[in-house]
Description:
Blueprint: E1 2-5, E2 12-16, E3 19-27, E4 34-38, E5 41-45, H1 54-67, E6 71-75, E7 81-87, H2 91-102
Amino acid sequence: xxxxxxxxxxxxxxxxxxxxxxxxxxxxxxxxxxxxxxxxxxxxxxxxxxxxxxxxxxxxxxxxxxxxxxxxxxxxxxxxxxxxxxxxxxxxxxxxxxxxxxxxx
Length: 105
């Protein structure tokens, strides 16, 4: 396992077999989907409400579009704190995309 801090922040990306794991904090019922870095956390604002897995579906769909890779939730299915696995991506590529999209290069 390899850990990389990104963008001079405390955001950690963990290299695991099959891809990279990122910890995110989800805020449901937002006006639009977006990513933001607050301190050492990646905060994901989701439009959906946390009912019947709607937030999880939106999270996986939107992150798949951002990273152009398959994304799955590996921990925190019923929590706002989640760990997502981005499949078949290098830690450097994931860090670059996350930095660019979240606006903290």
